[in-house]
Amino acid sequence: MSELEKSALEYATLMHKGKYRKGSTNEEYINHPIRVAELVKKYKGKSRNIETLVSAAFLHDTLEDTSATFNDLVERFGSQVAYLVNELTTIKELKDK
Asked: N or C: which end of the chain has fewer CB within 10 A?
């Protein structure tokens, strides 16, 4: 695992700390982003951008489910990761309608 991926996993773990999957039997939320990252590795493993894709997978719910901001992600992980996470984010206003 690259340093970028490790950092993304650590940050996602911190941001989702104490959160659990809805409808699950006490499964920690971070397990979901970890599974998504594993799927990205499995299906996109030959990508030249795999490090960025896996990092975005770890972080994909941070904007919609935590206090993390887009600017936080840019500062910590760079604009490419931040924009990918933004693209994967559900806009709450649309989700509630």
From this structure: C
